[in-house]
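Subject: Sanity check before I submit

Could someone independently write out the structure tokens for this chain? I want to compare against mine line by line before I put it in a report. The sequence has 380 residues.
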Amino acid sequence: MSDERSNTSVRSKPAARKRDLLDEESFHAAISLERKRAERSRKAFLLMLLDLGKLQAGQQNGNGLGLQKVLRVLAASVRDTDVTGWHTNHTVLGIIFTELSLESRRSIASAMLSRISGLLYNGLRFDEFNQITISYYVFPEDWDYHVAHRPSDPTLYPDLERPDIKSKLYSLTKRTLDFIGSACGLLLLSPLFLGIAIAIKLSSKGPVFFRQQRVGQFGTPFVFLKFRSMYVNNDSKIHREYVMSLISGRAERQPSNGNGKGVYKLTKDPRITTVGAFLRKTSLDELPQLYNVLRGDMSLVGPRPAIPYEVEAYQVWHRRRVLEAKPGITGLWQVSGRSRVGFDDMVRLDVRYAMERSFWLDLKILLLTPQAVLLGEGAY
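---
Independent answer below. Compare away.
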């Protein structure tokens, strides 16, 4: 590892590194770009952060000599393909070490931390070294799906955590629409809720509502609600196995009563009750998710909320559908593809929505949803 990087040290000049030092906005954009590059190349990258706040504050008249000294020391380990900039302006310096082996990323990160720490220790005065705090983050991350908090580290997603003014305005408008829409929906549809609840109780034993842990934005888990459409105490193995084959691209289309082309979904699931089949066909089983929208776990429009064992099987780029947008009751996939398209195409639709989302796109999807429900294609 050290031999690979030492070959570039002769070409590294402090002056060049100073010109290449990105501002906070540009560096955050570089992290976003590197995530996408890593997804395509199946490589990893290391984000190393050096908190220079105390060192900068201790410099006489704030002349920045401490920063230049640090950059000169780091020049021996920063390649031309690596990116240096401010993760937090004039406080936290960031370095993106690119194109790391995916399999060895943890050991490489540990070796790089030791190397950088050693260079700073040898190149700075002891009191200067003690004023620097070093941390590091590796992408792609190893997500733990069995915890009650989000598995993704916000440090690797500053572009998603700190949206611009336009995005903030959209988020505020979207949340207002979600709150008003879900509250009105719960109130106006309460008689229908009662009728569905009675039908469920009369047709089979068990609770009215089905509760399940789902994966929200950034991987944050939440309790998801639906009207129960299956018999109780059923085995989820049949669904788990089909989902695994679907994600891997091995699933075959199942017979459909619609256009005859088939769908990527279990169409003859023995776990589903007679009433449940009707609820699924008409999407009425989804209505309790209005409560999830009211709580803020979901939105009216967004990607379909994922099941934890589904996310465990994701490729790295698949995670974008749970990172870049809050899950929704309806979405671009539901109105333009639904179960008629394969899993990768579903993810592409979700990512496209995340990139193009706007108030008008949300409104268009909401207006197209009743038509998609009435046609019933892809609904099982």
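---
OP: Matches mine. For the report I'm noting this point. The chain has a mean pLDDT of 85.
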